[in-house]
């Protein structure tokens, strides 16, 4: 939960995620409605999902069948599609980094094998910069 709000009546509740994003749930004093707001569209889904589930459980226990859940205003499809595109780009980047890491791991093991054979030889031979190549590969 985030710190105290400026609201003296206590009809709002704010959640702050570890990423720093805040989601606020406001309860109307007169119309028996709740408003959920945030600076970021994708941050609201968890609070909305949990609130709807809890309302459904509460009103089903009371036997109320006409409980209405609605969204006023136009559907924020642009924000939704931006979130999907951003997620897709992150997945592509993650796959590229995974491939790069796999290549570097193969290279690292090959250098280790060559160094090991050099160290096992009875006659000392120069390392031919394999140690610095191992360090560079490790850093990459």
Automatic annotation (TrEMBL):
<protein>
    <submittedName>
        <fullName>Protein PTHB1</fullName>
    </submittedName>
</protein>
<dbReference type="Pfam" id="PF23338">
    <property type="entry name" value="PTHB1_hp"/>
</dbReference>
<feature type="domain" description="PTHB1 platform">
    <location>
        <begin position="1"/>
        <end position="72"/>
    </location>
</feature>
<dbReference type="InterPro" id="IPR055363">
    <property type="entry name" value="PTHB1_hp_dom"/>
</dbReference>
<feature type="domain" description="PTHB1 hairpin">
    <location>
        <begin position="74"/>
        <end position="140"/>
    </location>
</feature>
<dbReference type="Pfam" id="PF23337">
    <property type="entry name" value="PTHB1_pf"/>
</dbReference>
<dbReference type="InterPro" id="IPR055362">
    <property type="entry name" value="PTHB1_pf_dom"/>
</dbReference>
<dbReference type="InterPro" id="IPR026511">
    <property type="entry name" value="PTHB1"/>
</dbReference>
């Amino acid at each position: 939960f985030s710190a105290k709000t400026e609201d003296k009546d206590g009809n709002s509740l704010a959640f702050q995620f570890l990423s720093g994003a805040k989601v606020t749930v406001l309860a109307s004093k007169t119309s028996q409605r709740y408003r959920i707001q945030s600076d970021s569209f994708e941050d609201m889904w968890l609070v909305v999902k949990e609130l709807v589930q809890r309302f459904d459980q509460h009103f089903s226990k009371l036997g109320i069948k006409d409980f209405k859940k609605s969204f006023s205003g136009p559907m924020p499809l642009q924000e939704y599609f931006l979130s999907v595109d951003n997620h897709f780009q992150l997945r592509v980047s993650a796959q590229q980094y995974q491939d790069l890491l796999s290549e570097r791991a193969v290279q690292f093991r090959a250098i280790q094998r060559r160094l090991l054979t050099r160290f096992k030889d009875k006659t000392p031979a120069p390392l031919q910069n394999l140690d610095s190549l191992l360090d560079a590969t490790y850093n990459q």
